[in-house]
Amino acid sequence: MVTMEVLRTCSDGQIKRRRPGAVAHICIPSTLGVSCDCTTALYKEAEIKRINKELANIRSKFKGDKALDGYSKKKYVCKLLFIFLLGHDIDFGHMEAVNLLSSNKYTEKQIGYLFISVLVNSNSELIRLINNAIKNDLASRNPTFMCLALHCIANVGSREMGEAFAADIPRILVAGDSMDSVKQSAALCLLRLYKASPDLVPMGEWTARVVHLLNDQHMGVVTAAVSLITCLCKKNPDDFKTCISLAVSRLSRIVSSASTDLQDYTYYFVPAPWLSVKLLRLLQSYPPPEDAAVKGRLVECLETVLNKAQEPPKSKKVQHSNAKNAILFETISLIIHYDSEPNLLVRACNQLGQFLQHRETNLRYLALESMCTLASSEFSHEAVKTHIDTVINALKTERDVSVRQRAADLLYAMCDRSNAKQIVSEMLRYLETADYAIREEIVLKVAILAEKYAVDYSWYVDTILNLIRIAGDYVSEEVWYRVLQIVTNRDDVQGYAAKTVFEALQAPACHENMVKVGGYILGEFGNLIAGDPRSSPPVQFSLLHSKFHLCSVATRALLLSTYIKFINLFPETKATIQGVLRAGSQLRNADVELQQRAVEYLTLSSVASTDVLATVLEEMPPFPERESSILAKLKRKKGPGAASALDDGRRDPSSNDINGGVEPTPSTVSTPSPSADLLGLRAAPPPAAPPASAGAGNLLVDVFDGPAAQPSLGPTPEEAFLRFVCKNNGVLFENQLLQIGVKSEFRQNLGRMYLFYGNKTSVQFQNFSPTVVHPGDLQTHILSAPPALRSQVDGGAQVQQVLNIECLRDFLTPPLLSVRFRYGGAPQALTLKLPVTINKFFQPTEMAAQDFFQRWKQLSLPQQEAQKIFKANHPMDAEVTKAKLLGFGSALLDNVDPNPENFVGAGIIQTKALQVGCLLRLEPNAQAQMYRLTLRTSKEPVSRHLCELLAQQF
Amino acid sequence: MIKAILIFNNHGKPRLSKFYQPYSEDTQQQIIRETFHLVSKRDENVCNFLEGGLLIGGSDNKLIYRHYATLYFVFCVDSSESELGILDLIQVFVETLDKCFENVCELDLIFHVDKVHNILAEMVMGGMVLETNMNEIVTQIDAQNKLEKSEVRMENAIIKEGSQHDDNLRMICSFHCLSFSITL
After folding, report:
1. A21–B134 CB contact, under 8 Å
2. Binding site annotation covers A516?
3. What CATH topology corresponds to A380-617?
4. Do A142 and A106 touch, CB atoms closer than 8 A?
5. Where is the AP complex mu/sigma subunit domain (chain B) (predicted)?
6. CATH superfamily, with its number, for domain A717-836
7. 0.80 exceeded by the pTM?
8. Annotation-wise, does A78 bind a ligand?
């Protein structure tokens, strides 16, 4: 930490004497006493009271008849600023501030501009007035006023201001007679407008003159110009290309100057550090200079900077070394950016290596960060690797978590086949003591490295199991899904995996994720170790079952699936397992999922023949290879910028995969969401036969041979969709060829939907492919649809498809089902809305009248309410309405509304991300045959959407 | 680009906030609280950089801060700024404050909101660095002060009234001030 030489107190601890002058009186008198020390609630309350009083005072002063003099205006505006800073809303004073803008007095004008740049949002009425004042000041030719106006534009930077001034500012910037300070401000003002709305800033002949500002005498102007050019040249590199040689010569002059040459711009004996950094940044926008002379001069500069780093410091002050190193790090960034001078790259790497052991924490942090990018260059990858011990040491001993995190990043970046085992084991060891904040990230990194550089898969399996052992809570689904995928896909490791999980499960306390992995692997591959009497089938079963009661519902569900697999693999365990399934705790379990599994598995095991059982419970087929879901997750975690850095880590050509398919390739990056990866793990498909098709008869009602025209039978798809808002089962679509039936169930934010496709003709459908696209925030994955995946559907036959649906957030558009097939050689295609609407995820909520009204009042913002008055389309029958409302998903609350004719309901929409509480009220008016429907929810779009949906039902 | 400049004291009370990107008033306060939370729990002698909080824009942003006695100076910047450069800039800012206020302390920031903003405006504009030369900045500020004084002289009468008011006040709050004037 820096010294505190700058801020000193007065010796006796008393408040020091204010300097005389007007400013001293513009304090915040009445708020000060309380606002300074509000550690207690008492003070907080006092502060609010005090501030409200003060606000009332100021308001009355502004509103009063007596015209305020300039000084008072200034005083009150200042007070408002301070009150705003403390976090209180300021809803007046804007007009007074705008008035101050047109004052002739500098002080008043200044305070007006200050208020506006802090407090004004795009209030259109005021913006016009403000723009007017700015226009006057820009035209005033008074440099002080011009600067104030430019500052205001730059600070507000709204589009309206851009429209008003974008054309004027380039003129001011390059005008020959503009003062230096005005030029400086104009450059940054233009930059700000360009960033806010690039389309408003016209490029023109001024661009060439802007580049020449790099030669300006005034260093402040150059600094501002460099910032501007760095931004502009991103879009039009060619227009600004000439800046390279100018920047290089400017840089060269600074770097080679003595520490006294630049006078005021020398900062603690370092000449113009800020400008140097900016110039080096600018050069990073371009490839290395083509002109040999320019390039030579630049390389010379870079070498000089590297040389200077070795010289003894000219001052012991930390500011001196900071400034010097700021230039040095930027130089190294430029060298890494060019990535073409092996000599410089290695020197840069050595320099960073020195910093890795520097006593300044900041330098160690920055060195680790820069080295991360250096590791991806083929010239310096090896040089970076030589620092592995230092980096590992940093991971272990650094006191600062930010630094440790950089060290972990660097280890990840420098990892290749030669050092993977060392790095992974160090990261695992670190994980035991790592900060909670970064554990998950480290787990992901270890998982990726272990998979990527695995030479033998037993090491990989060991590593992941270790991960679960050490940091089970931080092992996300993606990680353990992935190990199962890999084990399933590689038969050379299955036996080892089974043996290892079996041993791991013997630990007295093992993490639930371990039970999940163990349950799945033993269920699939337990037979591979069954020969050993120590892990005979009954032993395996009793080991797993000993964990059963300690596990969550999801894990228990998985274990039940393992048990039925055991019955198939090891007939000798059948009796024991059937006993377990038959137990009251399973068959009458309060959880529907567990109960259903127990019932179905029990029946399956007793009804089905061995052959059927073996077919149903066949070993899982290999998973299709695609981008590692873990990598996708890490990328999501790090944000888009870091994702490329992660990939850069593997530019090393030698690391190409023996591990096939793990490497992300551009074509697979957009694979479906990772959780779709392991089909059936989240909730294994019920292996029971599809509900004996009651519909088989009516599916074959008619056989018309009319391939040309297939008018829909019955309701149009839109009508059919609407009918499903209040019910879950029925016929979604029917024409002369095809009938699509739907059966669905929803619980919390999850849903499962069975789609039955019936071929009504006597001819086989070919290339039959139903696919689901979900545009919104709904995650659907097709769970298990082997029959539907078969591309033929025989005449008169029915196939079933199961969709598992998870609602991630509230959504408005339903997923689309598109069905394509060939009938008699003619392609057929249809697209339907799947009947999944937000109300399906309703959980009814019962509440008393009092609670209802209280909540109703809480949701009183106008945007939280949606109301619709509409004419009844159906006879107004109270019972039917009631049924519809219940089908819609809300609870019906009796005795809440004073009028018994009215209906009142409440419920909570469950999504993965959030819950939305909903209250509704439906008021029928039998005389007018009208309804009034009111919905209040905590989210505005939801209110409107539900209101629309429900209004169409009556 | 600099996204925000925040100054708060050891208790998290804001003493200056300047946002160069539009955030709603509520978000501004939340950002201040979040930043205080992130920065204040760090030990002395750790590094001066950390990843930004979620509200300010997540890990693509850095918080670069210095802690002087009772005050934290925090700059939230995106990846286009040099970390050490910003650290220098904070130093320049503080040194400039010190020159303009003759031994700056926390109270100066409270009593002279406008002044602090003006000094900052000479250094940073619209999120970009305008001037790093301290002498230049101080010259500008001095010029402003002169202008002010010449204008104030014309309003002599008001000054008298004002100063009386101010004196009363100072007595009221001197008791509070003891606890938080900046110590070396």
Report:
1. no
2. no
3. Leucine-rich Repeat Variant (1.25.10)
4. no
5. 1-147
6. Gamma-adaptin ear (GAE) domain (2.60.40.1230)
7. no
8. yes
